[in-house]
Amino acid sequence: MSREPADLTGLQQAFPYPRSASGATTDLASLLISDLKKGGPIPFADYMATCLYHPDLGYYARPEPKTVSKKGDFMTSVSVGSVFGSLLARRLHRFWLANGSPSPFTLLELGAHDGSLACDILDHIETLDPAFASTLSYLISEPLISRQSILQERLQDRATVISNPSVINAEFGAVIANEVLDALPVPLFLYSRGQWHEVMVTTANDILEWSSRPANPDLPDNYPEGYVTEGAPDFKSLLTPLSGAFKNALLMWIDYGLDQEALYHPARTAGTLRCYRNHRSDAHPLDHPGEQDLTADVNFTAIEETARATGLSVHPAMNQSRYLSYCARDWLLAAPSPHAVSQFQTLIHPSQFGNRFYCLELTKGQVERAFP
Description:
alpha/beta, Rossmann fold, nine-stranded mixed beta sheet, five-stranded antiparallel beta sheet, 14 helices, 16 strands, 23% strand
């Protein structure tokens, strides 16, 4: 492999935003710069993991700022209102009934953030079917200690917060993960001078800067000079403990993303990595570490391949508009309020959440999927 250094112009074109004069002055930036001076450059995936999940200074560890809301940094389907949670509750209820109403039924949520989705699901299940509610054991997996206490305080005895799924040994249940996959740290690659380079983060003059090293990712080598893209995150480390936690289960993943062919199209020269801060995405990934979201589109092909390799059955992904419309059939016939219908329309509208988001279901064991 050639040792010729990469031309980093492609990174400048992928992230053309002006650098902030104060972009490297956060507490986390100071810590990163200090570590980089001692240990040298780190892969972008490690940088992204630190920015999002540092136990004290990471973006998702911050106890005060409301990142997910109209007044925060970005919106999710949960932010639209309680209808999203109520429709997922109906999906779970149908699955439970189709499999003989097992008791107990263990429901595990990943990436619960402030617990809003858990509250919406639990509230609706309690009114939908008290018998289902009585069998339900709601667990939330949250590795960040700072968020564990916030979640447990809000949910009280309605749910149990655990640090990871390895403690679960459930006969029957389900997993819900809304906008979890897009927040997994991804490696970043640059095609330059006829070869691939892994993008690294370094420091110069006490600011964060790009660097690179030769790499050999499982990607074609016919891309244009300066092509930037992401590799798949470590899906295996995510799915393996989940598969082992249940003998029989439904796993529901809701996120924005693409299949592998679209994700790595030659025309997608800047990849999908982006930042969110105050509902704006025009920020540089090396600015404001710990104070802005870093996210990338989900490679649905890669997670489906990993799911099969871990013993899970894969069912065709569909856009959120179609998925929630299936979930809402009985609910719509019951004449919901105009306000609730307005929320539903936002969730399924092509220009809102309907076409951008996809829903992927996986199953474990001998189960009746009961969909659509």
